Amino acid sequence: MYSKILILRFPGDVVHKPIVCSLVRDYDLTFNILNATVFPRKEGILVLELYGTRKNFRQGVSYLKEQGVHVKNAEQEIKRKEEKCTHCGACTAVCPTGALSIQRPEMIVNFDQKKCSVCELCVPACPTRAMKVRPTNYAFFE
Amino acid sequence: MKEHKINKTYQEINEKIRSGEVVVVTAEEMIDIVKDEGPVEAARRVDVVTTGTFAPMCSSGAFINFGHSVPGIKASEVWLNNVPAYGGVAAVDCYLGATQPCEDDPLNKVYPGEFNYGGGHVIQDLLAGKKIHLKATAYGTTCYPNRMIEKKVTLETLPSATLCNPRNGYQNYNCAINLNKKTVYTYMGALKPRAGNANYCSAGQLSPLFNDPYYKTIGLGTRIFLGGGTGYVTWHGTQHKPSADRTEKGVPVTPAGTLFVMGDLKQMRPEWLVGVSIQGYGCSLAVGLGVPIPILNEEMAQYTAVSDEDIFTQIIDYGHDYGNGISKTYGQVSYAELKSGSIKLNGEDVPTVPLSSMVKAREIADILKKQISEGTFLLGEPQFTLPV
C-alpha cells in the first residue's frame, strides 16, 4: 500500500464539484481528511492522506489536476546540508532508527535517508544545524 | 640530565623545513613507525609529528577594535548582531565571547533551548565576510562625547580582530553518562536516561596534548594551526592542571593540561571556526587546532607514538553528580573502546557518541603536514614551556 499526505487547493470555480469522491469510486483509492477549509473567496483547501496502489495513486492525482485542483505534496523529509556537517557525531545520540551512524574506523557520520523516520530529533541536536526539514517533491506533481 | 641518542634542535628542524628535506608524519602515522622501527630509529627519521583536534571549545572569543567615530565614543556596552560583547576595555575595543547568546534568545525558557545564535556564530559570520551590525552605547565624556553609534562592520573594515582563547585543547576530557530517569541536555550533548549513551569529546591519539603529555615542546611561542590560519600558544590555559593522575606512560587519566592560544582572526577561515548551538546548554565555537610536535629526541618519538589503547578517561554522571560537584568515576575506559562504538558499564553495553570530529582532526593534521613539508610553516621555539 502506497500513501502520501497531499494538500489540495480548489479554485473558486471548482469548489462546488464533487471531485474527491471520484478518487474512491473510479481510482480505488481511500483517504483520511486531516484538514479542510473553504475561504471567503470560495477557494477551498483540503489536506488528506491518500492510500492506494502506486499506479492508481498517480492516475488519481492526474484526475485531480484535470479537474483544475492544485496538488501539492505535504510530506516532509530530513536533508543534511553537507557543507555544514563537521562529522562530530552528536546527532547519533538521538537518532532512533540508525539513519545517522558512524562509519568506523574513519569516524565519518553517514546519513541514510532510507532509514530516516523524520522524527526531527536530529534538527536541534546538531550543533551546526546541518539537518533540515523540507517538503518532499516528486516530479509527477509538477 | 638524561642523555639521548638522537638530539635535534628547533633550528636544525627549521633548516630542514626550509631546504625541503624535512620528514613530517601525522600522530596517527607515527604509531606504526615507532612500533616497527623503535623510538630511536623513528626519531632519527622523523622530524615533526602533526596533531589536530576539532570540537566545541567554550573558552574562546575575540578582541575586536571597531575604529573611532566622529564624534568619538568610549563604548561601555557593545553588541555585534545583538550579541553583547564586553566593553570594559579602551574606547573602541571589546571582547566577544563565544558562549554569549543573542540578547533576545529565549534561553532555556522552553527546555531544552536551541541557542541558535551567539558569539561563536558572530565570529564565523565575520570570517564568512558577512556584514555585522554593531551598536555601542556610552555615558559620554569631554574627550569622547558620543553616546551611541550604530554601523555595519565586516572583518575587512575592522582595524583589528584577534582570536584570543583562554582555554583550548583540553588534554583529556570526561566520558559523560546520565544515571537520571530523564534525558538531560548538557554541554556533553544529549544524554539518555539510565546510561542510555556515553558521550566523549577528544581526538584521542591525534589530540595535541596527548602527544606531548609533559609539555616538553609546547609553550609561549609555539606556532600552531588555529582556525584555519596560523596562531600561537601564548600561555597555559585556564584550569591547566598538570598534576592530574597519569598512566605509566605519562598520559593523564582525567582532564589535565590546557592551552591559551591567540592569532590574527583576519587570516582564519569560517570552516575552522564554526559557531555551534548546544541544545539545552548554550552557544559555543568549534575550534580547529593543530600543534606540530618537533621530534627533538627518541623520548618525543615515544610520546608521539601514543595510541587510543594507551589513553584512558573516566565515566562521569552528568545527570546528577557533575552538577553537584561529586567527582565519582563509574569506571575507566580507553579511547579505543570509546571509538569502537560501545563501552561496558556494569556488564551492560552502552553505545558511545563522539562530539569531537575525527574527520576534521585528521584534515588539520594533514594540512599542517603539507604546510611543513612544503616549507610554508616553520616551527616556533617556545620561550618557556607550559608548567608541569
TrEMBL record, chain A:
InterPro entries: 4Fe4S_Fe-S-bd, 4Fe4S_Fe_S_CS, ACT-like_dom_sf, Fe-S_Ferredoxin, NIL_domain. Keywords: 4Fe-4S, Electron transport, Iron, Iron-sulfur, Metal-binding, Repeat, Transport. The keyword Ubl conjugation does not apply. Residues 76-105, 107-136 form the 4Fe-4S ferredoxin-type domain. One of its GO terms (molecular function) is 4 iron, 4 sulfur cluster binding. It comes from the Bacteria. The keyword Electron transport applies. This is 4Fe-4S ferredoxin iron-sulfur protein. The lineage of its organism: Bacteria, Pseudomonadati, Thermodesulfobacteriota, Desulfobacteria, Desulfobacterales.
TrEMBL record, chain B:
It comes from the Bacteria. Pfam families: HcyBio. InterPro entries: HcyBio. Residues 22-379 form the Homocysteine biosynthesis enzyme sulfur-incorporation domain. This is Homocysteine biosynthesis domain-containing protein. It comes from Desulfonema magnum.
